[in-house]
Amino acid sequence: MVKTCGTCQWWDSDPMVWVCCNGDSERCADFTSPDDTCPCWENYDWEMWGDG
């Protein structure tokens, strides 16, 4: 999995919102593109279970 905002669990992907909701990220509450990246990326399901 590519670690981008679009795959991060903290990214609000409601239509036309695209806001980072991770309180640990310096981009929290900022508008972000699905292709943006940051060191605070998290996706618990993927980290626990992988791609399968």
What does this 3D model show about the protein?
The chain is mostly loops and 52 residues long. Helix content is 12%, strand content 8%. It is built from 1 helix and 2 strands. It has a two-stranded antiparallel sheet. The radius of gyration is 11 Å and the shape is globular. The model has no long low-confidence stretch (mean pLDDT 89).
Defining key terms:
little secondary structure; 12% helix
Output the strand order for the largest sheet.
1-2
Number of helices: 1
Q: State Rg.
A: 11 Å
Distance from N terminus to C terminus (CA atoms, Å) equals: 11 Å
User: What would you call the quaternary organization?
Assistant: single chain
Helical/strand content category: little secondary structure
Tertiary shape:
globular
Largest sheet: 2 strands, antiparallel
Overall helicity:
10-25%
Outline of the structure:
With 52 residues, this protein is largely without helices or strands.
How would the blueprint of this fold be written?
Layout: E1 11-12, E2 19-20, H1 44-49
Antiparallel strand pairs: 1-2
